UniProtKB/TrEMBL annotation:
Domain of life: Eukaryota
Protein name in UniProt: CSC1-like protein RXW8
GO cellular component: membrane
Residues in CSC1/OSCA1-like N-terminal transmembrane domain copies: 5-165
PANTHER family assigned: CSC1-LIKE PROTEIN RXW8, PROBABLE MEMBRANE PROTEIN DUF221-RELATED
Chain segments carrying region Disordered: 667-716
Domain CSC1/OSCA1-like cytosolic: 186-370
GO-annotated molecular function: calcium-activated cation channel activity
Basic and acidic residues composition bias: residue spans: 683-693
Domain CSC1/OSCA1-like 7TM region: 444-606
Transmembrane segments: 6-27, 86-110, 143-164, 383-402, 466-486, 493-513, 533-565, 586-607, 613-632
Species of the source: Vitis vinifera
Membrane topology qualifier: Multi-pass membrane protein
Keyword set includes Ribosomal protein: no
Amino acid sequence: MKLYALLTSAGINIAFCAILLSLYSILRKQPSNVSVYFGRRLAQFSPKPHDPFCFERFVPSPGWMVKAWETSEEEILSVGGMDAVVFLRIVVFSIRIFAIAAIICIFLVLPVNYYGQAVHHGHIPSESLDVFTIGNIKEGSKWLWVHCFALYVISCSACVLLYFEYKSITNMRLAHITGSPPNPSHFAVLVRSIPWSPEQSYSDLVKQFFINYHASSYLSHQMVSDSWTVHKLVIFNYNTKLNALIMSKNKEVKKGTRSTRSSEKRSNSGIWTDAYKMLQTSSMKQSSTPSLIRCSICGVSPNSFKILSNDPVKDKVDLDSTTSEEGASAFVFFKTRYAAVVASQVLQSSNPMLWVTDLAPEPHDVYWSNLCIPYKQLWIRRITTLLAAIVFMFLFLLPVTFVQGLTQLEQLQQTFPFLRGILKKSSVPVLSNCLQLNASKSIISDSQWSVFSSVKDLPTELARAVPTQVILSPDILASFFMTYVLTSGWASMSFEVVQVFALLCNYFTRFILKKDPSNETLSFPYHTEIPKALLFGLLGFTCSILAPLILPILLVYFFLAYLVYRNQIINVYISKYESGGKFWPIVHNTTIFSLVLAQIIAIGVFGLKRSPVPSGFTIPLVIGTLLFNEYCRQRFRPIFENHAATVLIEMDRQDERNGRMEQIHHQLHSAYHQPKRTSQDSSKGERSNHSEDGDSIQDPEDLKPGLTRPILRTPS
């Protein structure tokens, strides 16, 4: 790839971004787009009236950039929460470190790469990107010391910046914990794997256990009901029996003589009535017999499966009794935060599989159906998930390996001799040539088929393959990642600020459906934006000394991201969830991984360039980076995983002095209230054949011949 081609691509993306940003500055001024570009403000304040004939609304302006730049971190904290501040710290850290890397690599590494070999250089825009990469350095060159020095500067600067960011965010998290309103999850402990007893209920066991062993701190508890599995079994049992009875009655009717339409209606009505009465009779006989046997699936007794009646009042009572089956899990509430933390971290029983405790999740994070899963099944599910992921990985590798093997027919014939007859057909060599042409465009070439030919040589072959491809194809490496940052980075920021999908939905609702769009606001997509920022950071660290031209492109991306994300946090997104910056340790570890990967690649490149001294001097840098990471893990990470006892005790004392502790205790049960639905929730006072959750039982006499059988309603 030539340099002018890269400049052309950059110019096209710059023009595209400028057009979209100008379009955004116009669209955000239109009154019809208030719900798209000011969703957060619209959720808190009423929109101001706009002058429909104002000429300024149709002129692009950079006012939103100025507003986003001038907004302080305290305002971001009050608007978007601590998670928004920590995310912007990731962007600021990336700007700082890659600004340092760009200065070092553009003014030191890039000239060394350009004059690395004694060749005649033409016009710079016509030069290939290969001459700007480390691949242009001849073997045994002493100028590789410059690359080693640049790597030291980048790594040390990154570690210093990471330390101060980690320290600052840690202090910010402590201030967030102490300054935030009382959280019910700080007083609650989730208890699972409660042992079953035929003499006592789960609730009585929990109360007796915690009064006995946590008498001074135990407050109350709330059981988790295993309602969903019970309802499914009730419905299945009812429908199966009713189907069997109806089929038997239909056979009896078919044996009789043909009748008129009216008599057929009475006959069908009689079928439903007889089937329904027989089912009620069998259910009453079953429920009249006591049973000590519990279901192996949901843990309830067989008598819990009942048939709902036609009476709406009785229907509701029966449904409530069905959903009241207790599961082997409970939320236990304590009088203080400190007591809850101690109870969650201490082993409650000599059998680690019983009375398992953990800090309760926040109320809106509880997924109630998962709490009914037996604790002994969790480790089996984890292993099953891991095995499924491994199987999927190998299933993906097999076709890829086969296709790559087609580019090396000779090695494929040596490895699998039974394929020689198939591989000698005329179509296979043609396919192999096409694949070889396409393979030359990849970063890791298909020529490394020998990597998969012998498992014992896998580490050696990979160590030889990756640095070799980095050196043999540096222009491909540089052009691919630069183009990726230009398209996926710059363009994505432009689309993010324009909110194309939300804008189209808004226009479709207004002008096609002729309705007012809903004012539903979005939450910030941390799950996609944090990995994207970390990926671009990985590309910046690994390519900094190999292809320095990527650094200015990355800097433009992070500067644009800084403005766009601040604007979106201020105007568009709301904070539906607040973790208190708990994802920063992941960011720190990912950055350390990127640094170590860049250093290991540099060691391999220096070795292939026959420069053992720079390669040897890079090894202490790897060790120092890992030691720094271990220090940060010991110094800061526990604060993100656990709560400090001194902080919790001081918060408890402050609540007691202010008289808020009793109010907090009173709100605990309502915070962890398990939702239940009865048969009358969706009917709104009317009995109908269908509802949002299913069908209701009706009087068999009211059924018409063409209707299907009645189905027991399923509460969701």
